[in-house]
């Protein structure tokens, strides 16, 4: 394997901005179309605990990392695909290069498929709960209109818009983002959880 390239590297400005997680679900996923399953992407791997933790992060304002979306509606994408754009072919205008688990969790949360502890919310924001072994849980759809509006305003995702011209270029970004660093081990996470439990 060589790291050499045929031409000098080009800089892609992937400036990240904060967007409402609800907007991403409503506009990008529902209205414009979002490919959550490009061929380089892994499947749904997050556990329910991880998904619930993401909602907790949104509620407490903890950053959740950058999601990278590929904008396939560009002229360059159309030219690389024989003059056919996603609008012409009926395909999604966006693809998730990185952040599939977070976006899938946002979809599940805002569509009422995920429940979290009701104690996380002001009681005035709750209309309906469900009993669990861990006490009452609530879904987004079980919040009052004021509660849903408040959660929609504070649940942010940092999004970087990429404009590759092919799926192969998307996959190259995926490899760069996900191939660096060393994954946390179970022992690393258990240690951090033990320290957090001592507060």
What is the compact description of this entry?
The protein has 199 residues and is of the alpha/beta class. It has 8 helices and 8 strands. It has one domain (16-167).
Keywords:
three-stranded antiparallel β-sheet; about 200 residues; 8 helices; 8 strands; five-stranded mixed β-sheet; alpha/beta
What is the domain tally? Answer: 1
Strand content: 15-25%
Looking across the biggest beta sheet, what order are the strands in?
A: 1-8-3-4-2
The unreliable regions are none
Q: What is the tally of helical segments?
A: 8
Radius of gyration: 19 Å
* Proportion of helical residues: 40-55%
The shape is: globular
N- and C-termini, Cα separation: 48 Å
DSSP strand tally: 8
Mean pLDDT equals: 93
Largest sheet: 5 strands, mixed
Order of helices and strands: EHEHEHHEHEEEHEHH
Sheet/helix structural class? alpha/beta
């Amino acid at each position: 394997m060589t790291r050499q390239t045929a031409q000098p590297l080009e800089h892609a400005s992937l400036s990240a901005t904060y967007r409402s997680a609800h907007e991403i679900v409503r506009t990008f996923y529902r209205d414009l179309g979002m490919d959550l399953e490009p061929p380089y992407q892994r499947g749904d791997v997050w556990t329910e605990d991880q998904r619930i933790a993401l909602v907790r992060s949104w509620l407490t304002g903890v950053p959740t990392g950058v999601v990278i979306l590929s904008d396939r509606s560009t002229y360059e994408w159309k030219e690389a695909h024989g003059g056919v754009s996603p609008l012409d072919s009926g395909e999604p205008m966006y693809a998730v290069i990185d952040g599939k688990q977070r976006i899938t969790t946002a979809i599940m949360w805002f569509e009422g498929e995920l429940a979290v502890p009701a104690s996380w919310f002001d009681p005035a924001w709750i209309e309906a709960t469900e009993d669990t072994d861990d006490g009452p849980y609530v879904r987004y759809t079980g919040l009052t209109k004021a509660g849903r509006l408040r959660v929609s305003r504070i649940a942010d995702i940092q999004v970087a818009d990429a404009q590759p011209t092919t799926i192969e270029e998307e996959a190259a970004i995926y490899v760069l983002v996900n191939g660096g660093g060393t994954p946390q081990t179970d022992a690393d996470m258990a240690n951090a959880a033990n320290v957090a439990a001592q507060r």
